[in-house]
Design a protein that fits this description.
The C terminus is likely disordered. The protein is elongated and about 90 Å long. It has a five-stranded parallel β-sheet with strand order 2-1-3-4-5, sandwiched between helices. Strands 7-8-11-6-12 form a five-stranded parallel β-sheet. Strands 9-10 form a two-stranded antiparallel sheet. By secondary structure, it is an alpha/beta fold. It folds into three domains: about 130 residues, Response regulator (Rossmann fold, 3-Layer(aba) Sandwich); about 160 residues, P-loop containing nucleotide triphosphate hydrolases (Rossmann fold), CATH 3.40.50; about 120 residues, Helicase, Ruva Protein, domain 3 (Orthogonal Bundle), CATH 1.10.8.
């Protein structure tokens, strides 16, 4: 029998004959097999590779199989561990199952025994993959894709999303930068009756007043210098769907008046157009600033405030929902591991402790950047403290978003220089494929020097 979906196995036993016989049999079943003669060697190998299955002798000199099992389950919880035991130590093997072992294998072995064990392992792996795919499909269909959390704070947000989704009332999302306000807006849109219509977002703080006006309202040919032809604005693009105004506090008083008129009259004029265009959209706005203070200072109009703030949803900062950090970190690890074609067994206990203790001033966005950096730089099969930017700076905030991107860009650039811009060799060093490397070059704006010609 050949096992589908090649299983990577580590055999750990102090007896050479056992290692050799198991390695030979497992290879006949189509497995990729490594061997280790003791516990410390096995643990060192699990740092370098992700194993689907570990066959672990329960009685070994020095470090026992039980001690190895405990460490593996801390650092590589996804690895299936089966204890190897003789008749005299069956009781110990059964006890091992209470602390994480999946099964035990009796000496002497025979092929049918191994066949059943590998089939069971293959099924477990398949179920894990199917469960992950089902979860991703569910999250996408329910509109909560990328909105991750099981804390009471996030459950409150989820309930609010469901409650407001079917109405057409304007929603104001409040929260610090990086908390995921746009993701909440997309979830509301996905659960609404407008879900098959456009979701159109614009960051109001990224434009001057004149540019924002043309971006929102569009224009006709000749409306201003440079307007060489008609162009739809974001209002028109969002017709039938949802318009998301991010950083709504940055809109000028004049633009607030113009948008208020659109919301009241449900029509607007393109710049330079004589006739109004009817419009129908659901408005969702977001801000990280205190709009009430802006109103007191006179920079945010009260009438516009009451129009955009019919329903308010507060998005909690990450430091107030620390129990969600492991879920988010594992999600980002999985995402960037797939993107870079790397395999990881998970996040080590010490690394997770650092993630849990940090205050995350940049919130979920900062956590995502930290995990992307860790995946790019990690050389072992699980994320360790040294892969985190704040591992040796106790109590200090990690690198800023831009610094994290600089580190990743510089690392990739250094590897390319070292490999003399041979993309195949650089991709191998980075542990990614060429297609992923090309995406990274575009993402981080890394250009090949004109005097470098790639060798294939």
């Amino acid at each position: 029998m050949t096992i589908k979906n090649n299983i990577h196995v580590l055999v750990v036993d102090d007896e050479l004959s056992v290692r050799v016989s198991l390695q030979g049999w497992l290879k006949k079943f189509g497995c990729e097999v490594d061997v280790a003669e003791d516990g410390p060697t096995a643990l060192m190998m699990t740092e370098e590779h992700l194993y689907d299955l570990m066959l672990l002798d329960i009685k070994m000199p020095g470090m026992s199989g039980v001690d190895v099992l405990k460490k593996v389950k801390e650092d590589s919880p996804g690895t299936i561990v089966v204890m190897i035991t003789a008749h005299g130590s069956v009781e110990s093997a059964v006890e091992s199952m209470k602390i994480g072992a999946s099964d035990y294998l009796m000496k002497p072995f025979d092929p049918p025994q191994l066949s059943l064990l590998l089939e069971k392992t293959s099924q477990q792996r398949r179920l894990l993959v199917e469960n992950r795919l089902l979860r991703e499909k569910f999250e996408t269909r329910t509109g909560f894709h990328n909105l991750i959390g099981s804390s009471e704070a996030m459950n409150k947000v989820f309930r609010m999303i469901r409650d407001v989704a079917e109405s057409d009332s304007s929603v104001l999302l409040r929260g610090e930068t990086g908390t995921g306000k746009e993701l909440v807006a997309k979830a509301i849109h996905a659960l609404s009756g407008r879900s098959f219509e456009p979701f159109v977002a614009i960051n109001c703080g990224a434009f001057t007043e004149n540019l924002l006006e043309s971006e929102l309202f569009g224009y006709e040919k000749g409306a201003f210098t440079g307007a060489q032809g008609p162009r739809k604005g974001r209002l028109e693009m969002a017709n039938g769907g949802t318009l998301f105004l991010d950083e709504v506090a940055e809109i000028s008083s004049k633009m607030q008046v113009d948008l208020l008129r659109v919301l009241q009259e449900k029509q607007f004029h393109r710049l330079g157009a004589p006739n109004p265009i009817p419009i129908d959209f659901r408005l969702i706005s977001a801000t990280h600033t205190n709009l009430e203070e802006r109103m007191e200072k006179g920079t945010f109009r009260k009438d516009f405030y009451y129009r955009v703030n019919v329903i308010s949803i507060e998005i909690p900062p990450l430091r107030e929902r620390r129990e969600d950090i492991p879920l988010l970190a594992e999600c980002f690890l999985d995402r960037y591991a797939r993107e870079t074609a790397k395999r990881f067994s998970g996040i080590s206990k010490d690394a997770m402790r650092l993630l849990m203790e940090y205050d995350w001033p940049g919130n979920v966005r900062e956590l995502e950047n930290v995990m992307e950096r860790a995946v790019v730089l990690a050389k072992k099969a699980h994320i360790r403290p040294e892969n985190l930017p704040f591992s040796d700076r106790s109590g200090q905030r990690p690198l800023s978003d831009s610094s994290l991107q600089t580190i990743i860009r510089d690392h990739i650039g250094g590897v390319l220089e070292k490999s003399e811009w041979n993309l195949s060799r650089a991709a191998d060093i980075l542990g990614i494929n060429r297609a992923t490397l090309y995406r990274k070059l575009r993402k981080y704006h890394i250009a090949r020097p004109v005097d470098k010609v790639e060798s294939l």
